[in-house]
Write a sequence for this structure.
């Protein structure tokens, strides 16, 4: 058993090193092109501005729902490219040198960082353009952070599955819909409680369910992706 411990530690360190290297690779690719990030930011600004020109003033319930609709479609555009922007030959090369669990984990972490950045930028611009009706702003930020985590974990795995099909964009929309609807309902309810300034303890169930869903998605992604990747 004493000999096995160093082996397990070595494998863990190798896995962490692979994951961090792949995350660095994702940032380098994004930094070199910048088209995707700039396009997403333009999409966010244009959508919020069009909503402002259309509504001028909206009630808090509509404010909350509209924000999550914008964030949902922004996340789809941002994360859909996770596995679709790289060709098969590159993934064949990855297959020979990289642990598949490290690859999917690096994609999820990178998309989490990207989505968190976009979500907070979107919230800032949204509150500047429209009046800010949020009573518990720090708790609303927690809801946005959980939303970014949920969207990144869900859509990354769906993108991996859809990338194996020829009509991958359509398949991603079909696969995402039944998964994201209950998740979106929880996020909207949690955010609405923060907007109304309701006692934080009353939202403990929503937070617990969201965290549990994300843990399950992480576990399923790590277990299922190696089989998807072999195809």
């Amino acid at each position: 058993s004493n000999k096995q411990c160093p082996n397990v530690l070595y494998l863990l360190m190798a896995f962490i090193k692979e994951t961090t290297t792949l995350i660095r690779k994702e940032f380098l690719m994004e930094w070199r092109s910048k088209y995707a990030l700039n396009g997403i930011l333009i999409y966010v600004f244009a959508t919020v501005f069009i909503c402002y020109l259309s509504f001028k003033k909206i009630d808090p319930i509509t404010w909350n729902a509209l924000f999550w609709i914008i964030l949902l479609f922004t996340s789809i555009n941002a994360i859909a490219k996770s596995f679709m922007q790289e060709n098969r030959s590159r993934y064949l090369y990855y297959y020979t040198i990289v642990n598949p669990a490290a690859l999917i984990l690096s994609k999820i972490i990178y998309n989490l960082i990207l989505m968190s950045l976009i979500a907070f930028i979107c919230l800032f611009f949204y509150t500047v353009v429209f009046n800010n009706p949020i009573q518990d702003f720090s708790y609303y930020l927690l809801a946005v952070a959980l939303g970014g985590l949920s969207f990144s974990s869900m859509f990354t795995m769906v993108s991996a599955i859809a990338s194996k099909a020829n009509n991958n964009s359509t398949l991603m929309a079909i696969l995402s819909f039944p998964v994201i609807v209950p998740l979106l309902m929880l996020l909207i309810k949690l955010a609405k409680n923060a907007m109304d300034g309701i006692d934080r303890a009353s939202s403990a169930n929503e937070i617990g369910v969201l965290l549990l869903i994300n843990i399950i998605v992480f576990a399923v992604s790590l277990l299922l992706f190696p089989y998807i990747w072999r195809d």
